[in-house]
Amino acid sequence: MATISGNTKARARRSTDLGGLPLASLPLAVLVPVALMGPNTLLALYACAGLVIGVILLWRPQEPPILLFVFLYQWVQATIGTFYSNLLGLPVAGLAEHSGQHGVAIRLLITGLIVLAVAMWVAAGRARLDLASQFREMVRSYSHRTFVTIYVVTWVFSSAFAAAAPFSGGLQQVFLIFAEVKWAAFLLLTASTFGLPRRSKFPWAVALVVEFGLAVGGFFAEFSSAFYYSLIGIAFAASDLLRRNKTVISVLVVTMLAFAIAWTAVKRDYRDFINQGSSEQVVLVGYQQRMTDLFDRIAGLDGAGMADGADKLARRLSYFEFFGVVLQQNARGQPHSGGEIWGSAALSPLTPRVLFPGKPIVNDTALTIKYTGLNPAAWRTGTSISLGYMTEAFIDFGPYGMFAAIAALGLMIGLIYRWLLWQKGWRLIIGASFVPVALMPAHLLEISAVKLLPALALSVLAGWIILVFLGPMLLRWVGMIRRKPLEPHLGQRAS
Fold this sequence. Notes:
By secondary structure, the chain is mainly alpha-helical.
């Protein structure tokens, strides 16, 4: 295929021109009535406006929707407390355990997300109207077994790095980045599965179950990654997403939410069981015992238990409280640091631990205690409690300067995205698959800048190594790179 058809390109351009407004209208139909029914109406309406702006800017229907995901997940974290408070008939402060300027904090978070969305949109540049179509054409050229093989090989590769990471010393963060590379292969498998309507879904379903099963057996049960990458892969592969795959998408979303609620309801007792009451983040029980205990607890949940889990999940997702406390501390005279936290974050990639073994270890909880004045007993059990990069930007630069730091972060994210998606030939396969993995650290509102900026820098390094060395080796091994180049399938840029 030399070029995509005129009709396909026209449909892609119309979808891009609409800016995803129809997509935003679905949640707005639910959220606007909730915004109008409680004591936080203006704040909730501002949240709705922020949602519309973010979706309009970041909906790019022919590309992996990682920029939109980064925005949406943080938007949920910043605003869910507002809508949930309205449903309960409470001001947002009613959800917080500690007093603070919580309404102001949420307004600043929403504004920060709008700034982040604008910066990512500017740096990402024009959308590729041909990307998903080129990908689907490439999928037709190779058997399903090829993509299953890529996933299996990459899974073994990532597992080896994950197992070696605790013993890698100053290279631990590099090892952990490569431990995540399996998700690029999983996304490639997902997109190749759903890119062709008649292709068997069984291998992808097996991979999903395996990833889910391994994740729920850990202390943190990070099962959400399998669902996130599944949804991103389906969205990338299928431009007629809602019509063709709405059943699969609905099942994935409902399953993820149901398990998240159930996990939230039982996780405290479950963790006490697997760490044998040690109050440490360790696993001291075998996998079979862990799974039996977990699913016995979930099976024992009744309606009241699930309702309690849903309440805890909404409160857990909401991440404005520490910012509100910091704002109050600032109003009482706590000065801004002048760039102490973000400056350390910016310098961290330039001082890798393997070369600077004496570099201090990041302690999120210590920063939170310092700038909030809080120090509950629950924080002394090895748990990492983070302020979040936006709160740290306020601490460093104040209520106006913080947005410059956030804009710089958005530009960095957008440039990484643009670099990986505007590859040529077979490198486009690698770049499109890896870009969600590279940017996934940026989706959490609570992540510290001291962790986020180095993680993004390491993702760039890993992306370069994969593009230049590891990816070509694997694609050559499975027969996707031959003497005859793939450019006729993949080398065309959007006109």
